[in-house]
Amino acid sequence: MEAKNIPYGMTDFARMQEMNYYYVDKTHYIPLIERAAPYFFLIRPRRFGKSLLVNVLSLYYDINYKDRFKDLFAGCSIVDNPTVEQGKYLILSFNFSDVNPVPEKVIESFELHCTTRFREFADSYEHLFEPGFRDVLMEQPSADAKFSYLVSRATQLNLPIYLFIDEYDNFANAILAREGNERYHALTHSDGFFRYFFNKIKAGATGNGAIKRMFITGVSPVTMDDVTSGFNIGANMSSDSRFNGLVGFSEQELREMLEYYNSQGMLSDSVEDLIQVMKPWYDNYCFADSSLDEPMYNSDMVLYFLNYYLPHQRAPKNMVDSNIRTDYDKLRHLIRIDKTLGVNASVIQDVVTNGSIRAEINTSFPAAALIRPENFKSLLYYFGLLSIQNVTMGRTVLGIPNLTVREQLYTYLIEAYREAHIFNLDYYQLNDLVWKMAYEGEWESVFRYFSSELERQSRIREFIEGEAHVKGFLLAYLGMVNGYIIQPEYEAGKGYADFYMMPDLLHQPDIAYSYIVEVKYAKRDASDAEIDALRRDAIVQLQRYAADPLVAKTKGNTTLGLITLVFKGWELVVCEKE
Q1: What CA–CA distance (Å, rounded) separates 467 from 519?
Q2: Cα dihedral sign, 151-155-157-162
Q3: pTM above 0.70?
Q4: Which of 40, 226, 244, 303 is the most exposed place for a label (fewest CB within 10 A)?
């Protein structure tokens, strides 16, 4: 039998089963979902497997697939112990990522999407209703009218409906990001059509209404808070530890997948080596305080990697899927770092510099309250830009989960500098300088370039006062160039130097030089003796880091340079290499 295909980008479970695609089995969660809540709300980052999960659930519960259950779910854990509700529902399904978010077209597009889904519903279940049901349903003048009529008839006939809404907040988020609060408010408040539609859903799910179960996915609780005045039509299970692994891949699931392809003779590297390649880029998402021992991989990124690796037998040159970058770019507009580098920009600056930040994860907040730092931190968490790292002194610690996300945060911070007209670097010149640093050992010109630009562009100096800001500034820019994977000190966690410029030997195996950098900062009135003390302290930290086995393991055959930078205010007064 041929080896299973990689289901990169696929959300059609029936096709995956029929066409021999690999499926990471999540069906053991079905009984848990049933017991947890009839109206289930799940928030996860983009491209994390939510749409496939919705498709699996809809096929499992669809009355029209009841007799095909064993064939369709062959090989899945649920097939031998189905729940009593299997095949008991009429499925009404929406995916609001299909709605055009252009304000002038959004209502028309929403109506068109809903009409299409109501027509599909009628095509599938017309035989269960009275004659003429389909015609009367499609004659209703609007989506909310169609919904009300459908629910009314199903209630009268005692036909239970399972409602699925995938990406419930997709077009609303796009409007909020592109058009701002006014347009978004008109959509989600008062008599806004989206709010009115959710009122109809609530009515259909209360009392004796036909909506007996509901499963809604999205990327944040913001829109749900706005359209329902607080999520009061269901249970937000996003931070429930029982469902930490509901989407995405655990390391065990990834290992089993790799072992399968290894058994098919399709891996030229060991399973362990491939995990070590993927882990720093795709792992470390945690969605519950008590699930720190069960970090999840982003499933889309893993499948992207394997979709390239299996035919080429090497890692992709670009470890980040371009579709992920596109999604993060959309999120950047929603994050809306203010133009003056205010509180929310400083949140990102602190995270980039220190690697983590304490936060209270708010489960519900309106769009109007995003300017509050705790809500902003929560939004970064829901988007997958931060993840639960620890709990200390009763507070959750959020950290950057992996290299993919760190790259995006660097981009956000640099874009914030640029859009606020505070600082802008010539990337081509910086890339060229770092190339010479990597291959010719010309390291000093890189840091002198930063120093000269700091001197030339005076506005940035207002925002990098202090050692932490200088580090964050350097990390953000150096993290965006090719050749090195920047490993900040906080990842080593041993009081080492500020960052290790680890050579990216996977993609550029002929790099000749690697570096460890320690940044010190002194006030503008610091004495020469104080500067020298900082320099000597930096050397001790550099030597301690250089002796770490991690460096010996990852530097390959490169020549290691230990660089000390001491800033006096914004002026670089020490720039030397051991």
Answers
A1: 7
A2: positive
A3: yes
A4: 40
